[in-house]
Specification:
With 179 residues, this protein is mostly beta strands. It is 0% helix and 51% strand. The chain contains no helices and 16 strands. The chain has a four-stranded antiparallel sheet, with no helix packed on it. Strands 5-6-7-8 form a four-stranded antiparallel sheet, with no helix packed on it.
Amino acid sequence: DIAIDPIRNQALLLVGILSSAVNDTRIVTVDLSTGARSLLSGATTPNTDNALGSLFDGVSMQFDDIGYRLLVFQEDVLLAVDPLTGQRTIFSPEGIVSPIDASADIRNNRVLVLNRYNSNINAVDLNSGTIDHLWDIPDTNPRRISLDADNNRTLMLYSPNNRTIFAIDMSTGRISVAY
């Protein structure tokens, strides 16, 4: 996954490195002016007190430029990552199951989280970390979501072979074909 830190003009990459011994997920920064790369957060970076340590296995992330933090979703937990130090802390301890994608909803100070295996979308309040269930979705294979705030809807894409984009009305939860 990729997120942009507009203040420091850098891209943040969520990179999984699989080996037979460890699933070593890392967050790497890329300076958008020079292309220089550096490790921001990993199993023992910046230190061994990082939340989840070597069990860090993020699947999706969003940059919260209001709170100036990187939100990383992992099975059953939401982590806040300091974009300057790489320090990870648990932001929302329970309630997110199998997140596969997320989309920032800045107007409502929350992040929408698409949960793959229980087929729903939750909202995580960016102040409190409270998780609210928003909608159940009728398929177990959703892949991506993106907020379309101007039209008060969330767009959702199912499996890569399905080229249909669905729209979820933010007021009613009604799902329709968008494109």
